[in-house]
Amino acid sequence: AARQEENADYLFYTKAMEAEAEERDMLERELRLALENDQLQVYYQPKIDLSTGHIRGMEALIRWIHPDLGFISPAKFIPIAEETGQIITIGEWVLRRSCYDTQNWINQGASRHLKVAVNLSGRQLDEEKLPQTIQDILEETGLHPTNLELEVTESSLMRDIDQGMRILKSLRDLGITTAIDDFGTGYSSLSYLRRIPLDTLKIDQSFVRNLHVDPDDAAIARTIMDMADNMGLTVVAEGIEIEEHETFLQSIHCHIGQGYYYSKPVPPAEFDKLLTTFSPPKSLNNRRTGEDR
Ligand code: C2E
Ligand code: MG
Ligand code: MG
Ligand code: MG
């Protein structure tokens, strides 16, 4: 009977794996058409200055809205695009779109300091010509390099640390700022961190989620903050969902906050409105510690 059960389990898992592989192939095929057929969009989520309550910038987040399948999460299709190499074309498209939109908003009166952050996958860092591609996009759209930030995860950087650092260095030489995304979830040693050409650390949302109840997470956030201050880095906390998160992060003087508490990622037309109408939650206003820098 045990044997039969094992067999059944085996069949079950093989079937499940087959179904997964099939879905993968299907998504890969559909993704090829997505760009041509205008199914991809860039949404923007504001990043809030925790000392002034103003929008300092935004993160560009890709969205795929498929006519039949509906919304497909980037967590699902980005890994496929990375594996197939489609991420190179898609990533370039996101960069161009984001730079274009941001320059547009600046032209229409948004702050000259408005900074758009774009996610880069490890695969893009392998491309020797990435800095040139980005420089071309900046020239094309008229966006100043200091208005662009690039977010990379520790793990994508660690795939080939020498190559990654070289690319980050040439990007920074252009005047672009760089951020480590999901910070704290990877394995980068502190000695590496010191050598990476870096401006910003983004505290991963897994540490933010329970900040207000879990002393360990609070200690991690505090430690990241101390370290960043010593290294002259800006800290962004992602995944701020409730007032308690904000309260704690403000108490440790975290610079920038991002999360549903302020706004979900929204389509460009909505972000355009946010730029002129956004007012921070009362909680932030009442605790404001400083003015615009
Ligand atoms: P990420 O770069 O760490 O982006 C933050 C994710 O957290 C986004 O998920 C965002 O919608 C979500 N988020 C923001 N605030 C909150 C909050 O308060 N609570 C919770 N629970 N979540 C929040 P999203 O848009 O689904 O993207 C997932 C990941 O997909 C991103 O993680 C990033 O790694 C990747 N991704 C998204 N767009 C791009 C892109 O254009 N290029 C590349 N290479 N990767 C992308
Ligand atoms: Mg990111
Ligand atoms: Mg992140
Ligand atoms: Mg993430």
Features:
293 residues; alpha/beta; eight-stranded mixed β-barrel; 19% strand; binds ligand C2E; binds magnesium ion; Diguanylate cyclase
Overview of the molecule:
This protein has 293 residues and is an alpha/beta fold. 53% of the residues lie in helices and 19% in strands. It contains 13 helices and 9 strands. It has helices at residues 2-36, 74-84, 86-107, 122-125, 130-141, 154-158, 161-173, 190-195, 205-208, 215-231, 243-251, 268-277, 282-287, and strands spanning 40-49, 55-66, 70-72, 115-119, 148-153, 177-183, 200-203, 234-238, 256-258. It has an 8-stranded mixed beta barrel, surrounded by 4 helices. Helix 2 (74-84) crosses helix 3. Bound molecules: ligand C2E and magnesium ion (3 copies). Residues 59, 119, 151, 181 line the site of one magnesium ion (MG).
- By secondary-structure content and strand pairing, the structural class works out as alpha/beta
- Main pleated-sheet profile: 8 strands, mixed, barrel
Q: Strand sequence of the main sheet, in spatial order?
A: 1-2-4-5-6-7-8-9
Q: Helix-strand pattern, N to C?
A: HEEEHHEHHEHHEHEHHEHEHH
Low-confidence stretches: none
**pLDDT averaged residue by residue:** 93
Bound molecules: ligand C2E, magnesium ion
| Number of H/I helices | 13
Through-space gap between termini: 71 Å
Strand content: 15-25%
Organism: Terasakiella brassicae
Protein name: Diguanylate cyclase
Domain EAL: 24-279
Region (Disordered): 280-293
